[in-house]
Amino acid sequence: MTEQQTLINSVAPLANVARLNQLIDRCTNRAHGLPGMGCFYGRAGLGKTTAGIYATNRHNACHIEALPIGGVKGLMNMIVMELGLRPARTTEALFAQVAQEMTMTQRPLIVDEADHILSDKSIEIVRRLHDVSGVPVILMGEETLPQKLQRWERVHSRMLSWVGAETATLADVDHLARIYAAGIQISAEIKQALLTASRGSIRNVSTNLAHIREFAVIQGHGVVTAEIWGRRQMHTGDAPAPRLAPASGPRRGAAA
């Protein structure tokens, strides 16, 4: 089993992985005549991209990460390449390639960082791909993505379901500990403190678990309890406070 596959299997039980998976299932198995677009949204750090990687493998989806550059042609080119095709020269030909391939394969399309395609041409071309091919199209983005999409009624009205990524749980901490703190036993008290310090961010949870494992390995501990951890700080995501500038004494040559 490859390292990537091992990681995919390890993150499978995470709550937000399950939420995105259920969203894709809902769009895929929708009743005839219903729209097949979905939106998976939430603030940074909740594990949306990780969930997207798992969903891509489970559903054989076409998964792209949108960029703030390139316009419609760049977007179509990314999808064509992800589908394993040789890109055509013109935007029209690229769209035809994608539409034909998606219609034939019925592979779901997942657009991560969808906040970057919120322009009239880009978002409408994605909507058109959904209409032509009938495949599920999932837009993933930040917390305010659903509100931003209201600007385009033809896109907004095709949303079958809106699913918000939620903050991390203790169960998520347990699952992630198997990846980022492998071989180290962490007490329930430390896990709760870690979750609180991480403010529900999957990314912060993972970082803190890695720090705990590093500490345990260096200090030779197989178990980390509150007593062993002591007053050490955990990562909250906040920037460090500004350091005070050294006090300035009299300049050389200046009168005292």
Rg calculated over all Cα atoms: 23 Å
The amount of beta strand, in percent, is 5-15%
N-to-C SSE series? Answer: HHEHEHHEHEHHEHEHHEH
Q: In the CATH scheme, what's the topology name of the largest domain?
A: Rossmann fold
Tell me which CATH architecture of the largest domain applies here. Answer: 3-Layer(aba) Sandwich
Q: What would you call the shape? A: elongated
Which ranges are low-confidence, i.e. pLDDT below 50, for 5 or more consecutive residues?
A: none
Structurally, how many domains make up the residues? 2
| CATH C-level of the largest domain | Alpha Beta
Q: Could you give the count of β-strands?
A: 7
Q: Helicity level, as a percent range?
A: 40-55%
The neighbouring-strand order within the major sheet is 2-3-4-1-5
Using brief descriptors, characterize the structure shown.
256 residues; alpha/beta; Rossmann fold; Helicase, Ruva Protein, domain 3; 12 helices; elongated
Brief summary:
The chain is built from 12 helices and 7 strands. With 256 residues, the protein is an alpha/beta fold.
What does this structure look like?
By secondary structure, the chain is α/β, with parallel strands linked by helices. It has 2 domains: 3-164, Rossmann fold, CATH 3.40.50; 170-229, Helicase, Ruva Protein, domain 3, CATH 1.10.8. Helix content is 50%, strand content 11%. It contains 12 helices and 7 strands. The chain has helices at residues 3-11, 15-28, 48-59, 71-82, 91-105, 120-133, 145-149, 153-156, 170-180, 188-198, 202-219, 226-229; strands at 37-41, 62-65, 109-112, 137-141, 159-164, 185-186, 223-224. The strands form 2 sheets. The chain has a 5-stranded parallel β-sheet, with helices on both faces. Helix 5 packs parallel to helix 6 (120-133) and helix 9 crosses helix 11. It is elongated, with a radius of gyration of 23 Å. The termini are far apart. 34% of the residues are buried.
